[in-house]
Design a protein that fits this description.
Helices cover 19% and strands 30% of the residues. It is built from 6 helices and 10 strands, in the order αβαββββαβαααββββ. The longest helix is centred in the last third of the chain and has 14 residues.
């Protein structure tokens, strides 16, 4: 294990990607599309409205040529993709801070920076944590800062087909990122509150989220690949979808958090009914989690209110 970590550290020792600036008109179309996917009960967002927290993930997208995609559908090259062979990527979590609302219909600029790179070990073996920061501005003013924690595995054989979906594959967020971050993603078996916001997952949902986010990773739409190559029990629900879902109860109540820290602890698979449960912390913050049947926790978050 130590040798694997040292090998990964050597591969990225000189990797210092330069900042990248991208621009987007921030039109209301993608927001209206996501509102349809989530079944938003009220009128979809329109130009002039505030962009809901974390929905900037619908913008500043990259559409590489087909020849630039790897066999897993993920881009082979990119400024913030570490130089690891047979790279496998997982979304582990992040942090969001709002300084002022982003306004739909007003052009915006995103500056992406590399924050840190750290080799770690988990149940699935050695891996590399990469943190990047997105700074979003309109009219030259800083509006939103988001940091994303991404996990990469390298040069490992696939775990083979999973049976029954009871155990997460070695390359999953549960088998790797979750254990490194200090949690199993499991919780005591408990009923989900009847008032919890719920979302049923199916292949159509995952297809629409992939299209909205320019995500070509085959684990979200190619079930034979997900099972036979990646070793998952089925199609994998997108991590960003679970973060949007966690904030959806607050958004529907028109409550805008000033900060939100979140973590993906265990993957969810197509067919699961996801429920968002929230609790008020002693200090007034809102603690949220995404659960599925049996009380399995897939994602947790903490929202600070103004």
């Amino acid at each position: 294990m130590t040798e694997d970590i040292e090998a990964i550290a050597a591969m990225v020792a000189d990797w210092r990607p330069e900042p990248l600036v991208t621009r987007d008109a921030l039109g209301a179309g993608p927001c209206a599309a996501l509102a349809g996917v989530l079944g938003v009960p009220e009128t979809a967002p329109a130009d002039g409205d505030a962009l809901p927290p974390l929905w900037h993930g619908l913008y500043f997208l990259n559409w590489p040529a087909r020849a630039e995609l790897g066999p897993d559908g993920h881009p082979l090259h990119g400024r913030f993709l570490p130089p690891l062979p047979d790279r496998r990527r997982m979304f582990a979590g992040g942090r969001f801070t709002a300084h002022r609302p982003l306004v739909l219909g007003t052009p915006a600029e995103c500056t992406t920076l590399h924050v840190r790179t750290e080799p770690k070990s988990g149940r699935g073996g050695a891996m590399l944590f990469v943190t990047i920061r997105n700074e979003l501005r309109q009219n030259g003013e800083l509006c939103v800062v988001e940091e994303q924690d991404l996990v990469y595995r390298t040069g490992l054989p696939h775990p083979g087909p999973a049976s029954g979906g009871a155990a997460a594959p070695a390359g999953s967020a549960a088998g790797s990122a979750g254990s490194a971050a200090g949690g199993s993603g499991e919780s005591a078996d408990r009923p989900v509150a009847a008032s919890a916001l719920r979302l049923s997952t199916d292949p159509q949902l995952l297809f629409r989220i992939s299209a909205l986010t320019a995500n070509t990773h085959r684990i979200h739409y190619d079930e034979p690949y997900a099972r036979e190559v990646e070793g998952y029990p089925g199609l994998v629900v997108h991590g960003p979808l679970m973060t949007w879902l966690m904030l959806e109860p607050l958004r529907r109540e028109k409550v805008a958090p000033v900060s939100f820290a979140y973590r993906i602890s265990r993957p969810a698979f197509v067919g699961a009914e996801l429920a968002v449960v929230r609790e008020r912390a002693a200090d007034g913050a809102i603690e949220l989690r995404v659960e599925s049947g049996g009380g399995t926790v897939h994602a947790t978050g903490r929202a600070e209110l103004a």
